[in-house]
Design a protein that fits this description.
The structure is a single chain. The chain is mainly alpha-helical. It has 9 helices and 4 strands. The chain has a two-stranded antiparallel ribbon. A two-stranded antiparallel ribbon has the order 2-3. The protein is elongated and about 50 Å long.
Length: 200
């Protein structure tokens, strides 16, 4: 007679082991989650400087007239002061950081009745800096960080002051205040010229 090996027990044992293992809950694999953080849309303002100058109003004139150097210094001071106020307003929790969420809250705030969404969401004195901050966030890797320090925005303000569009607007406004044909190289405007411009 052929020999019979006791294979039934091992086979049954393996089958039972396989069934037990199969019934055990498998550990979940932690897949990296995609980040859906996005920068809110802020359209570029038609004018960066005009509303800021009208808000500031005061202009310190040297020797009674404002030449180009005087106007450039005034613009620099107004823009940097306005930027500091804008960052303080956006920094809702006053921690010295500007979070993407803080920007989103301001941008997406509902409009008041009787005002367009743009008028409500983007107050004239805040709009240029909302645009600057949104553009800055758009250049960042938001999966690593979605905040910037208030102090670091000083450099972004400098970049705004040096941008071609801003410089063109500054020159055009000087000519607008001084009057046609005066020019901003050797020309100047008086306090009366400034007050007339503000009153328009």
């Amino acid at each position: 007679f052929p020999m019979r090996f006791p294979m039934s027990f091992p086979i049954h044992g393996f089958l039972l082991l396989e069934l037990v293992v199969a019934r055990q809950p498998q550990p979940q694999r932690h897949q990296p989650q995609m980040s859906y953080v996005s920068v809110p849309s802020v359209p570029e303002p038609a004018s960066y400087l005009r509303p800021l100058l009208r808000e500031a109003r005061d202009l310190a004139l040297s020797a009674g007239d404002c030449y180009e150097a005087c106007f450039v210094a005034h613009v620099d001071s107004v823009v940097r002061s306005s930027a500091a106020r804008a960052w303080a307003k956006l920094d809702a929790n006053s921690d010295g950081q500007l979070d993407l969420e803080e920007l989103s809250v301001v941008v997406k705030k509902p409009s008041k009745k009787g005002k367009s969404k743009t008028q409500k969401r983007f107050a004239a004195e805040l709009w240029p800096f909302l645009y600057v901050l949104a553009n800055h966030f758009a250049t960042m890797d938001l999966s690593r960080s979605a905040r910037v320090s208030v102090s670091s925005m000083e450099n972004q303000t400098t970049l705004l002051l040096e941008s071609v569009k801003f410089l063109d607007e500054r020159k055009a406004l000087f000519d607008e205040v001084a009057g046609p044909g005066v020019g901003d190289e050797d020309g100047a405007f008086s306090d009366a010229d400034w007050q007339r411009w503000l009153a328009r």
